[in-house]
Write a structure and sequence with these properties.
Three copies of one chain form a homotrimer.
Chain A (H helix, E strand, L loop, with lengths): L1 H9 L9 H10 L4 H29 L2 H11 L2 H12 L3 H30 L3 E2 L2 H25 L7 H29 L18 H33 L3 H13 L1 H12 L3 H30 L10 H17 L4 E2 L1 H20 L6
Antiparallel strand pairs in A: 1-2
Chain lengths: ~375, ~375, ~375
Amino acid sequence: MNHLWQEIRHNPILWLLALVPFVFAAKMTSPEAHTLLFLLAVLAIIPLATLLSHATESVAAKTGDAVGGLLNATLGNLTELIIALAALRLGQFTLVKASVAGAIVANTLFMLGASFLLGGLKYHIQDYNRVNARLQTSLLFLATVALIIPSAVASADYEVPSEFMQKLSVGLSVVLIIVYGLGLVFSLKSHSELFGSTEEASQEQPWPLNVALVTLAGVTVLVALVSEIFVESVQEAAVTFGMTAAFVGFIVVALVGGAAEMASAFSGARKNRLDLSVGIALGSAAQIALFVAPVLVLLSYVIGPSPMDLQFWPGAVVMVLIATMTATIVTNGGHSTWFVGVLMLMVYLILAMTLYLLPPGGQ
Amino acid sequence: MNHLWQEIRHNPILWLLALVPFVFAAKMTSPEAHTLLFLLAVLAIIPLATLLSHATESVAAKTGDAVGGLLNATLGNLTELIIALAALRLGQFTLVKASVAGAIVANTLFMLGASFLLGGLKYHIQDYNRVNARLQTSLLFLATVALIIPSAVASADYEVPSEFMQKLSVGLSVVLIIVYGLGLVFSLKSHSELFGSTEEASQEQPWPLNVALVTLAGVTVLVALVSEIFVESVQEAAVTFGMTAAFVGFIVVALVGGAAEMASAFSGARKNRLDLSVGIALGSAAQIALFVAPVLVLLSYVIGPSPMDLQFWPGAVVMVLIATMTATIVTNGGHSTWFVGVLMLMVYLILAMTLYLLPPGGQ
Amino acid sequence: MNHLWQEIRHNPILWLLALVPFVFAAKMTSPEAHTLLFLLAVLAIIPLATLLSHATESVAAKTGDAVGGLLNATLGNLTELIIALAALRLGQFTLVKASVAGAIVANTLFMLGASFLLGGLKYHIQDYNRVNARLQTSLLFLATVALIIPSAVASADYEVPSEFMQKLSVGLSVVLIIVYGLGLVFSLKSHSELFGSTEEASQEQPWPLNVALVTLAGVTVLVALVSEIFVESVQEAAVTFGMTAAFVGFIVVALVGGAAEMASAFSGARKNRLDLSVGIALGSAAQIALFVAPVLVLLSYVIGPSPMDLQFWPGAVVMVLIATMTATIVTNGGHSTWFVGVLMLMVYLILAMTLYLLPPGGQ
């Protein structure tokens, strides 16, 4: 546990861990103080997500390339998954879907755009391996197709029976998970030489395996407990802050859930290791779209009050489509400058502004 | 006719020709056995389409590059055209449109995707001339615009008079045919050097001209007769198999009509001649979109019970758009691996699955 | 004024200036002769726009690169801005929006397509600096996102309050203007070396500064007066010619407003200076989308009878999206042939034909 302690000492973000007990204390003493609970939960999730991310990477580093890549690829968005599971258990499907779509958009536009901007302010032109960017944007495109189809069919004039939508959603989920698995085989096994320079090494020293595993287990439980408080308080807190439900799910939850990865992506961009930033941002977006979202649909049959489908609010589908098209157009060349980052951030700002202004009942 | 006989002996697909008389016999004796008629017609069309394709290529090979290219470009999808004409004469516009849109999607996603997968399982990375791919995807894009516009206008809140839609459809059809013709001038005449390596040679020996012409004439008549039986039985058979009308038109008819070209495209991919596969798949899709579809609209004024317009079911427009965008993104680089094929096939699978699950009345 | 006189003698287009007094005379004597007024106004705006364009370039040439670039970038579409302002003052928001969307589409598809065609008929293959094309199409893409979002939200089933749409429109307008400004910093300052070969020199000798400034001031007043007559007469004249309101705003006004720039773009293409044509066409489209349109929204709070929002007719949004996608796909390679020009012109023809046939009430 010395490693853990040492890391906490050197990383100011982790000092926020001190807030974790206060979340539970506040929940006990004043369960109706939604705004306080919301703020405490947000601040507590950020350091926990950072620990989770580091523990996953440490386990991955110890277990060799294939298993390690697989671990990173499945647990890399553990925070997002746990938050969504908490909302799923409470039957808050709108929040689950908004947070899934919001995480795809936040990773694609905000995380990548801010990386390009931060890197571009320091370096005139930055290059990165566009093969990986293309694989990830292709995966995102496939997932976008899977999201468009149910909405496109449902928007026709006749009433779509919910039985059809559920069967279709299960089918789409299975397809997405299979493609995600084949994508891992492609990038880690059969054509790994094309993805060579991505060098997704963690910046810090990996922990010993036992420390990493204990941290992984313990922190997962903590994130699960805090997420539950977060999900319960977020809607009420939104009203206090004058934010719409759509804005909270799409923007706030997505940014909180991705805070740890953003720190890594931004730091990579400032060190001119843009392959790292692109890999984290687009890889994470693809993972949420092709792994987290379909797993949530399938798990809803087990833990949810009723099955969840893949039919999203048309506005969310349009936003995911815009994010995917932006990433496809922008990463086509494999170069980046500060202005490319500005463009992506502005697209994100437009989406966020729309959701912020959206009158209640809009989603 | 010795050539014909020799070919039949060496190509097991052609043994299915033996079923042709049985189609007509079954039609005489049991006109109500829709499922049997449907299955027999499907199995009989496949070898006939193969013969038709070989006869067209043989005539094309004998008549020199310009006329030959033109012949291939107009008769290359003769099977699809004949099937659609049979449906057009019976006034089954929904089936005509579904089979046209389905053929574009099947050629773009299934034929090209399966070629990439089959080739990629044998070769690590395959290259092809992307100039031709770009021309064909640009043509497809133009056709997609022509399909989107009527639906986009019609989806506005006010009622669009059918007179407007018919005038617009005739205008669009003329534009598409003109662009298709100019595209032939561009690729066969003015800038043919850019399309050099496409080497669209038929794999077998061409037949003598008289054999080819007689085969072309005779088989066209047979395909026309069998297609009529196929179109009459397909809807009833669909009910028996539990398939929706949308699925039959979009998937079954398209795959049956394109069987012969698929055999050529797949065989090209296995021989590392991917230019051949890309040329057949995308060239055929472009031909259907810019030549077959508009010709059907114009012919509907002559042979149909009433004029057919170019307004497609919105879901079909979305699917054609998805297919065109997938082809544009995927063929941008001019390289292919097995995973690219998987991605395209999965997009096709998503569309097929949606249509299969679609409740009746969905189209 | 000798310079001015000399130019008029050598440029036959400017001989149309003789019609300017007749416009005002006709307005006085027969204010109800809408068709005559419309035709006179169109013919008078074309030479005035040419003078305006030359005066702006002359001022820009005298004031050095940074200020000159800025001037060109803000006053380059002065004619379009003045026409739109005249319509804005009269509260004709539909005409304003149609002319803005129409100008984007006309510059992107017609001006660029005709340049490619005219150049391609003379030269086998033409190359141009695709960095600038990419910047402009990226800016157009951002503007398209800003146009899609309000319509996408408004097309949902619930009623969107106009207050929301106005707040959103102001926010979007501010974002677009900021991005436009940062784009100028990027292309003129921080990364100007990437845009080197664009050589946007005017073909003729620049005028002395005092001649240019006086011309700029005088002609601006004249354009404003003639535009008012044009806007007042255009709708009535449209009825006479059997044109729909949508066609007039989208096609006629856009082509009249852009006549001067088209002359420069086409002349550049015939001289194999395609960088000039691409710069004018796409640069002008981006300027209208990211500068003229948002300025009009903000100015509507000052000079309009009521505030104008950024919510466009869905058909117009689809057309702008099609134009942006066409430009993105086509300029990806940095090469051009006559057939690329044909494709773009045909896309424009499809849009124009649809608007021409659209029954009244369609917009």
